[in-house]
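Morning!

As promised:
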Amino acid sequence: MRFIDEYRDEAAAQRLVTEIKRLSTRPWAIMEICGGQTHTLLKFGILDLLPKTLTLIHGPGCPVCVTSLKSLDQALAIAQRPGVIFTSFGDMLRVPGSQTDLLKLKAQGYDIRIVYSPLDALKLAQKNPDREVVFFAVGFETTAPANAMTVWQAKQLGLSNFSLLCAHVLVPPAMQTILAADDCQIQGFLAAGHVCTVMGYWEYEALAANYQIPIVVTGFEPLDLLQGIYLTLKALEEGRFGVENQYGRVVSRAGNKAAQQMLQQVFTICDRDWRGIGLIPQSGYGLKPEFALFDAAKRFEVADLSVQESPLCLAGEVLQGKKKPSQCPAFGQLCTPTQPLGAPMVSSEGACAAYFHYRSEGFPKC
Amino acid sequence: MLNLQCPLPNSDYSTILLAHGGGGRLTQTLIEQIFLPAFGNSTLNQLHDGAILDLEKGRLAISTDSFVISPLFFPGGDIGSLAVHGTINDLAMCGAKPIALTASFILEEGLPITDLWRIVQSMSQAAQKVGVSIITGDTKVVERGKGDKIFINTTGLGRVPPTIQIAPKRAQPGDLVLISGQIANHGITILSLREGLTFETALESDSAPLHSLVAQILAVAGEQIHVLRDPTRGGVASALNEIAQQAKVGIRLVESAIPIHEEVRGACEMLGLDPFYVANEGKCLVIVAPEVAEIVLNTMRKDALGKEAAIIGEVCAEMPGKVTLRSRIGGMRIVEMLSGEQLPRIC
């Protein structure tokens, strides 16, 4: 298959692995930001091919995982209001809130629907003028433009029964928070390729300079990851810092201007709670005042919910790369994909789910 | 396309009413005008409370399955043909030659009679192709909103030849794992028809009866065939995990050897689905002693339903209960059992 097979070529992968091993002279710790990258590393068995001196630390770039418990509880509260059709990407449905999850509410008869695009939620609102249709807007800069476009269209169409529960988060402030921590061990980053497709990578240049680390914008196929690791390692071994772009086939320095304009029209940057991490200033998108009518948190008056996390779940430490999923005492025992304590065990981008589904200590030959 | 052999009989009603399940005149009309013309045979025609069969001595396989698929009609089949193929395949996976089927229908009030007619005709044709009769059945009607148009249960009876010993626990280290063709076609076809997903594909469900393919490989390899399994819900990954757990062996797959249609791969990439967990309705996994793998493979490939058969892995002693996979780039990973639902209901 074009655009897939060439990035999963075994001979090319083995060449890169050999180069990485040849380059590597001492221990290094690199964080891949995005959960999609974590899954590729595990799904293709890449971690076991790398030199033991190289540690990949799994970053917070799983939108489902970092969506705050408060946002989730708001979603659960809104979904139980009479007359509401609550729409969401499928991944959010099994994420545990304080009391329940969306899938359990669906089983109880609440009208909760999986959509594959926010525009499908908008169509539902048009088709059901007597119902309130709410879309759960989660995700990084990647999903934000389509959601901005949806709100913009809802306003153009004069729809009064559509709203957005906005839980968008931004990557650079999270990287800044991780780097600023006293116990930060990360020496290089694989930046999230698809976030950079939208936003470009100019924002990362200041981060790389301030903290004197290499940041390599990296894609999601096995060869992308291996090349991203290779470039980061090369910079580290040569003592260089700065931003490089491995994912040049889709990412430019400036990013997608049209998408950015749409974001600026609809969203404003706000403080945001990250699940497991806490409040990060200026790390989210909220709706601008002129789109306040479309703000589900205001419309359903759920802005001031208070919430309590499970003390057994170490998601926060996993999301900051301080612990591997398998180092959590609950992993695979009290916490599994069918009975999750935290979001990283549920999401298709969650590090805990990736370890649960793909990872084993040592594969014997047979 | 479905070939409607008989025209729909004239009826006073265009949709199913509660009274069609009431046991009275309308029930009788339904049986006489829809079910008997399609399924009629000497056993069913007696309209007894049950069917009485004369059997020779030997081993009997029995399997039952319920079908709740939405949509009812899809490229490559419909709920009727699926209800026949599904149960025939469950019998075939026991190594059994099918003898007879039963059919129970739960109809939702408001189901168009034309839909029921198409479904029943399709079941009849599918059963005829397999060479089995539907010997007894039942119909119930539930209120509108309390069902999903039509649910069908079929139970199948089959005869197991004397020397055949098919069972998951017979998988043993050294055995090879084969699949009869491309995976995930059924699940992706159904998914492409679902509301909210607007991707177009030329794919068809692989729904098909596997009894003949199984009979052919049993004829060439007999007892050397250790396990047969049709990877329906939960896909290839879940079926192999069950076998690995029951036989207490490891199963090691080679990703690049697993046949998969380009469109299915593309759809799975786009939607973030793993094709190893997607349902099949006309494929079987075959675990055989290594010395017969080649002849079993060649036999399958000569049949239209097995022309893309492939050897996809091996059974090993290491990591008992686990399925592992060598990825396309040469790394290893485990292949877990499906957790929860990957897709909406698909079979």
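The interface with chain A takes residues 173, 196-197, 250, 252, 256, 262, 265-266, 269, 271-272, 314, 316-319, 322, 324, 326-334, 336, 339-340, 344 of chain B (CB under 8 Å).

Hope this helps with the figure draft.
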